[in-house]
Amino acid sequence: MKKIIFSIVLLSFSLSTLFAGGPWPQKKGFGYFKLSEWWVVFDQHYTDTGLIDPNVTTGVFNTSLYAEYGLTDRFTGILNAPLLSRNYMNNLVSNTTKEVLIPGEAINTIGDIDVGLKYGLTKEGAKLPLSATLILGLPTGKTGGGTQGNLQTGDGEFNQMIKIDAGGGFSVKNTSLYMSTYVGFNNRTNGYSEEFRYGVEAGVGLINKKLWLVAKLDAVESLKNGDTAETVTSTSLFANNTEFVGIGFETNYYITKKFGISASAAGAFRGEIIAARPSYSVGVFFDMSK
Amino acid sequence: MKIKFFSLLLLIFFSACIQDDFIDDEVDPILRITSNIDTLAINTTFQLESKYLNNIGREEEADVTWSSSNSSVISITENGLIEGLQLGVSTITAQYNNGEGVLRDDLLIAVGETTTSSPLVINGEIATTSSYALSGDFTYSLIDDEVVLEFGDNYVASTALPGLYVYLSNNANSISGAYEIGMVEVFSGAHSYTIPGVGFNDYSYILYFCKPFNVKVGDGEIQ
User: Fold this and answer.
1) DSSP-assigned beta bridge partners for residue A204
2) Topology of domain B30-112, per CATH?
3) What's the domain count of chain A?
4) CA-CA to A50 of 20 to 30 Å: which in A68, A124, B21, B116?
């Protein structure tokens, strides 16, 4: 089986769940739903030495549904489903002869779906809300697409991530603020290295809480205990041990009490074997808790 | 507001289309005599071969003009067939006008008792042209009519790339038209490749590319 990961897909989850998430479970019967378009187009990447090298321009576009729904006051179900994922590479053209040397290709499939369950470790009103989350990454996307086997809309492996979130909301001069942080461990299969993840998020509510500005830092540190090109079979194409530290910014605006629009940008400022261009997202959301 | 929204959608739509990436692959065209012969036995013939490489290093048909500096020692036909007429030396010249100028290559050949050719061996070094690790000494030689590429103990290549391949090419920046030796399976230490069907003088560079993502990793010059 061919496996190719430039691990651009993993950014889509961690940086598309800005604003929602955190240590606060949804109340029973309430939920948060978001339909968004996330994309990254990159012509350079971080290499295994952390430096940046060029590559053929590659694009990944995910049309995703993200949902949180309160099963009980403590348990919240989570779904992140890239309903349509597109991965393409540009034509490689001779600047001398203008001849197409290597034709570009694209695949369009469903992406890797994440399902999860969040449990509120503290009761509502706690000074320091805590939650524990289990996320299962299902290999519903496609790997090894295209004639070179270099296109992907998933990583082809079933992973399980455990995450602990903590945070709190407060007010300063009648302005609502919140901060949260998390640590997580991602157990990966199929020869991929396990990962330690962490992040912090802060948001501020303006215009009577209609406009929320959010900033977030996410990091993935690989344990580098998986396979490399040296240890897999000669017919495999394999990249592993992706790492990054990235920041993201998001704006959310409630057009009505429950319905709003959002836009975000995120990118890694340190990384290994990962795209070295920013990703963007626009979406609409429905927040039942308001 | 609606115009901005639809402009954004159009921007996303068009950025999701396959476009063109341009690669700077221009090289100087060359004409190369690829035959290996030092001495031609008297009263025998030998067919010389040449190769014209265009401005992207790709082989093209060429109407080559052959000449001998001393036709009383070595005669040559318009197709490059030489004959040793008497003991001595002569410089054989191949010429081709590609429309932008006249290209030429020379080969000094002696006429003696037997036909001989010198051992073909080039020692070189591969080096990274990226930030991925790649280094080591190599020997490029012709053994029993087959090209053999041998790497020394100091060879090291990055294991982080998906699909690292090694090629022979006449363009240091492109694997278009290159000979694909194969996927790299040894990432440190001595090893070798036997390359069938390739002439010793056919290629100018050893290239290391991450094939799936068209990322050049490094190269080594063999001419």
Assistant:
1) A177, A213
2) Immunoglobulin-like (2.60.40)
3) 1
4) B21
Which residue range(s) make up the domain with A27?
9-285
* Position A290 in a domain: no
Which of B131, B161, B176 lies at the smallest CB-CB distance from A239? B161
- CA-based angle A159:A164:A165, to the nearest 5? 125
Domain assignment present for residue A17? The answer is: yes
- How far, in Å, CA of A129 to CA of A252, rounded? 23
pLDDT at position A17: 47
User: Is residue A2 included in any domain, yes or no?
Assistant: no
CA A162 centroid distance within chain:
15
Residue A87 makes CB contacts below 8 A (sequence gap 6+) with A58, A59, A60, A61, A106, A107, A145, A151, A152, A153
* Nearest neighbour of B23 by CB, restricted to A92, A148, A240: A92
* Residue A139 reports pLDDT greater than 70: yes
Q: What distance in Å separates residue B183's CA from the closest CA in chain A?
A: 7
With a CB cutoff of 8 Å and minimum separation 6, the contacts of A132 are: A118, A119, A121, A162, A163, A164, A165
Task: List all residues 6 or more positions away from B2 whose beta carbon is below 8 Å from its beta carbon.
Answer: none
> What are the two backbone dihedrals, phi and then psi, of residue B213, each rounded to the nearest 5 degrees?
-115, 10
Residue A8 confidence (pLDDT) above 80: no
State the best of B4, B9, B18 to mutate against chain A, taking most chain A CBs within 10 Å. B18
Cβ-based neighbours of A126, under 8 Å, separated by 6 or more: none
> What's A208's domain CATH number?
2.40.160.40
A42-82 tens-digit pLDDT? 999 999 999 999 999 999 999 999 999 999 999 999 999 99
For residue B176, what is the nearest residue in chain A, using CA coordinates?
A101
pLDDT at B223 over 60: yes
Which pLDDT tens digit goes with each residue over B125-181?
999 999 999 999 999 999 988 999 999 999 999 998 878 999 999 999 999 889 999
Query: At A7, which amino acid appears?
Result: S
